């Protein structure tokens, strides 16, 4: 029996930091990410295309099941398309807040102060719509799609924050209208809508606390 050939490999590029430098580097990153907040008040100042392209490239470095890379990042900057996106999202959100949301869910959202109105989808200079890519005529079968796309979105948020931009992860429900707004095929399923830009002058955010490390990390 002929043995299957091993897949091709390349040398790993890796720089090991001394312990003190590693601690310093990760705490520098931690303090930077600790200033990240979801922002709903955006300036109309444009964002350089090259910044968004670099951030999407960082997101695309995420690991994925079988390296299928099942993601699509649609960058919406057209005022007309952003208007369509906002109107469609608000129609779904009004239905959610008026009919679909449970009392518990609305109570959980109350400290954030959100409602069905989503002006940030129009005022932000760019909106990144993230799609999961499932199997279709021109795409292979993907594995661990939600996990892979979720990791990529986390890297995208970190990269944009590192560039001095603010974001707002937004998930209108249901989201299938995004296929039409963004001209995407059915095998691409909407995952997240994220306005991107600079904060408006005087922008404010909810006064929220993050859980302490002892509440979220367990050694065993």
How would you describe what is shown here?
With 220 residues, the protein is α+β, with helices and mostly antiparallel strands. It has one domain (41-200): NADH Oxidase. It has 8 helices and 4 strands; from the N terminus they run ααβαααβαβαβα. It has helices at residues 19-34, 49-59, 79-100, 103-109, 120-123, 145-162, 177-182, 213-216, and strands at residues 71-76, 126-133, 166-167, 188-197. The protein has a 4-stranded antiparallel sheet with strand order 1-2-4-3.
SSE order and pairing:
Layout lengths: L18 H16 L14 H11 L11 E6 L2 H22 L2 H7 L10 H4 L2 E8 L11 H18 L3 E2 L9 H6 L5 E10 L15 H4 L4
Antiparallel strand pairs: 1-2, 2-4, 3-4
Give a nutshell description of this structure.
The protein has eight helices and four strands; from the N terminus they run ααβαααβαβαβα.
The portion of residues forming beta strands comes to 5-15%
Task: Estimate nothing, just give the exact number of structural domains.
Answer: 1
Order of helices and strands: HHEHHHEHEHEH
CATH superfamily name? NADH Oxidase
Order of strands, widest sheet = 1-2-4-3
Radius of gyration based on Cα positions: 20 Å
Could you tell me how far the N terminus lies from the C terminus, measured between alpha carbons in angstroms? 45 Å
Overall CATH class? Alpha Beta
Q: What structural class is derived from the secondary structure elements?
A: alpha+beta
Provide tags for this entry:
NADH Oxidase, 220 residues, alpha+beta, 4 strands
């Amino acid at each position: 029996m002929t043995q299957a050939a091993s897949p091709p490999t390349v040398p790993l590029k890796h720089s090991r930091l001394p312990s003190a430098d590693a601690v310093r580097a990760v705490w520098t990153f931690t303090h930077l990410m600790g200033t990240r907040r979801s922002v709903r008040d955006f300036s109309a100042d444009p964002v350089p295309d090259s910044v968004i392209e670099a951030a999407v490239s960082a997101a695309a470095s995420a690991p994925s099941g079988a390296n299928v890379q099942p993601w699509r990042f649609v960058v919406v900057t057209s005022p007309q398309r952003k208007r369509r996106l906002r109107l469609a999202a608000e129609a779904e959100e009004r239905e959610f807040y008026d009919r679909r949301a449970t009392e518990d869910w609305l109570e959980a959202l109350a400290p954030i102060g959100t409602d069905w109105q989503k002006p940030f989808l129009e005022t932000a200079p760019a909106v990144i719509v993230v799609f999961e890519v499932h199997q279709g005529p021109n795409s292979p079968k993907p594995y661990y799609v939600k996990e892979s796309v979720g990791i990529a979105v986390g890297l995208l948020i970190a990269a944009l924050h590192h560039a001095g931009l603010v974001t707002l992860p937004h998930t209108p429900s249901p989201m299938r209208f995004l296929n039409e707004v963004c001209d995407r095929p059915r095998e691409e399923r909407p995952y997240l809508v994220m306005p991107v830009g600079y904060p408006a002058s005087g922008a404010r955010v909810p006064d929220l606390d993050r859980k302490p490390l002892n509440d979220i990390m367990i050694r065993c």
